[in-house]
Specification:
- Among the domains are: 39-85, no CATH class; 89-134, no CATH class.
- The protein has seven helices and five strands.
- The protein has helices at residues 9-17, 22-31, 43-58, 63-78, 94-100, 102-110, 119-122; strands at 3-7, 38-42, 84-87, 113-116, 131-133.
- The chain has a five-stranded parallel β-sheet with strand order 3-2-1-4-5, sandwiched between helices.
- α7 (119-122) links the parallel β4 (113-116) and β5 (131-133).
- The chain starts with a strand and ends with a strand.
Length: 134
């Protein structure tokens, strides 16, 4: 499996909330490769995004909209024939993920690009050329 793009929590939340087209366009570009590559969703980032959306639901913030956002996120991560793949957090990487974030660990592992809305923060742990600002 070739991972071209890794989505961090900020990118996953933007996708789920439809707060921009950049993430959807990246996914479409990878999809156009005809199965040669996937978009990586680090499990840790998925859990953070899911928890943020669940918190919005629990707080009663636009219940129907928050439910649709969470469903959109779950659909991205669980569509069997989709272009996205959930990347597991391996035991050997737990410390690095705790220090740098799971997305950074996966970018290094796969030589992929990190798609993020928090580029400045990402560049603390990754070289500039590995960060794709959305």
């Amino acid at each position: 499996m070739t991972v071209r793009i890794v989505l961090d929590t900020s990118a996953l939340l933007a996708y789920a909330r439809l707060s921009g087209v950049a993430v959807g366009e990246l996914i479409a570009m990878v999809e156009e490769d005809g199965g040669a590559a996937v978009v990586g969703i680090p499990a840790g980032c998925f859990l953070e995004a899911h928890a943020a959306l669940a918190a919005a639901l629990a707080a009663g913030q636009a219940d129907a909209e928050a439910a649709r956002d969470r469903a959109r996120l779950v659909d991205l991560a669980t569509t069997v024939d989709g272009v996205a793949a959930v990347l597991p957090l391996l035991g050997a990487d737990v410390v690095a993920a705790a220090e740098d974030g799971h997305a950074a660990v996966e970018v290094r592992r796969h030589g992929a690009l990190l798609a993020t809305y928090e580029g400045r923060q990402a560049r603390r742990n990754l070289p500039d050329e590995a960060v794709l600002d959305l």
